[in-house]
Description:
Chain A is of the alpha/beta class and 330 residues long. Chain A contains twelve helices and 14 strands. Chain A has a seven-stranded mixed β-sheet with strand order 3-2-4-5-7-6-12, sandwiched between helices. In chain A, helix 8 packs across helix 12. The longest helix of chain A has 15 residues. Chain B is an alpha/beta fold and 326 residues long. Chain B has one domain: 3-Layer(aba) Sandwich (Rossmann fold). Chain B has a six-stranded parallel β-sheet with strand order 2-1-3-4-8-7, sandwiched between helices. Chain B is globular. At the A-B interface, helix 3, helix 4 and helix 5 of A face strand 2, helix 5 and helix 6 of B.
Amino acid sequence: MESTNRQITTVEALNSAMADAMAFDDNIIVLGEDVADPEEGGVAGVTHGLSTKFGDHRVRSTPISEQAIVGAGIGSAMAGMRPIVEIMMMNFATVAMDMIVNHAAKLRFMSGGQTQVPLTIRMATGAGLSTAGQHADYLEAWFAHTSGLKIVTYSSPAEAYGLLQSCIFDNDPCIFIENFLAYAQKGDAPEKNLRIPLGKANIVRPGKDLTVVCYGPQVGVALAVAEKFSGEGIEIEVVDLRTISPWDKETVLASVKKTGRLIINHEAVRAFGVGAEIAAVVQEELWGQLISPVRRVGAPSCPVPYSRPLELAFMSSEQDLEREVRKTLE
Amino acid sequence: MTSQDIPNKEILVDMYKKSVLAKINDENARRVIMNGSLPMIYYSPRGQEIIPAAVSVNLSDEDTICTIYRGMHDMVCKGVPLSELWGEYAGKATGTCKGKGGPMHITHPSSGCMLTTGIVGSSLPIANGLALSYQIRKENKVCVAYFGDAASNIGAFHEALNMASIWKLPVVFVCQNNRYGEHTKFEKATAVTKISDRAAAYDMPGIHVDGNDPVAMYQAAKTAIDRARNGDGPTLIEAMTFRFFGHVFGDQDGYMDKGEKAQAMAEDPVPKFRAWLIEQDYSSEQELAEYEAAVDKEVKSAIANALAAPWPDMDELNIDVLAAAQ
């Protein structure tokens, strides 16, 4: 990807993606708890400055009312606006599941295409901050199981910028997943108005021996493991899904066809996760061409624990991926 | 109430025509279910027609509504065309939603019917969003959220009223209190005796009105819609009414007190309104009878066309799930 060498944080990237989009299109509004500047521009400051720049009619701090927040996003999107709704933590989206699953996702189909919901719902999550089981879940598989939503996440500040811009200007409801721990991560600044196409995966590192499919902060984990194995003469191909649903089957299947080996690595609980769907499709399409069983790295089947050693054990680590790589290479 | 708030003759006759359109359409819906020519899950609004008739004569073509599964009367009063409505009831390609939504999910934006939801309470937060867009874009439009008494006990109602009030959204919340939520009596499920009292908690006017009284209902709707349009914020209207055919059409009303339904049906608001219009000399037996016959003919023709219409193509399973590539 083309970029300057200027370094920015993920928070800065997300903030400028929204600011640049809002400057371009008056239909873009921001709704969410604490998002306006008097409330400090969001708990992590992702929306800082937007209400000052674009006015408090377009950037509104809301009551703690997730159904009303998402509902306001849906209704205004149906009227032709492009709302960005912030649900502070992904777990809080559970309070608004009716709005997201029964309405945002389905209104295009159920209206026979007469209405659409070009809504972006940003939500942060992730273990590692000792916030335990109600503030740290990765629930992407829940959303991916509902047709009509696009589920998107990023692996660097520039990717965050380009993918968020694409979600904002997309005509479908997008669930945009942010990682709390990675908010401070720095990386190359993107080109202004960069839009990364949705539905297209990115081969972050090419390799011939084994494919690792991942997304979000796990891309960094996979790259570190790939680097380590490279020293042993094993070349791992790292595929960043970018869009979790609908996922880029073409790129993943082409990669696994080449390497014959696949591991899917995500932070979400392993059982019934996104990895299970990808593994199933790969074995249906490439049965006979696989050198070893498709494996998955993910969290154990328990809520995110609080205690630091338990939390570290819960999170998908480089060691977990390395162990599965060795099994797959056997 | 000032005298100018009393609707003139033309408005009253228009209101009656809207209410009887819904009544005749409902009679035909129950007829085709019973004779087996068009079986469907149907939530009859029979008995509640005066409410949306009175609301709709106060709305412009550009104003919008969000309604619920028991919302046929709301839809036809707002102008959803019968041919497309019946196409959708029949699950045909000619339906409002190409047969992909069905009776509980009629959408027809060109007549202002933006949403029909099958989820209790969910019309309110989405109506807020439509109203928010009118406010931000400085459009002189109003959105009406229709819902039943039971919806006032779900979280979405409270979240939506609070948000609409703090932002002074141009929205009107019209609760059609038909005295039952599914099979449970309103009084058994609701802590207040008047849902309109709940408006006070959100610092907005609450109007308790006999939804079967055309003039009172007209005045309530006009007051609330004018207030919303003038930028003064939302109103909660509780319109008292009764549903004549249970929760889902075909239920046996075993949960109702004996005589309750018979008494309500004896006071059927639509023929009562009709008799009053003639008595006041606002209309004539002949004018109304001609209109009713024409409507019945139009409904029957819409049904015949819907039954003869093609089914949706199988490709429709893959269309409108996501946007076509941009």
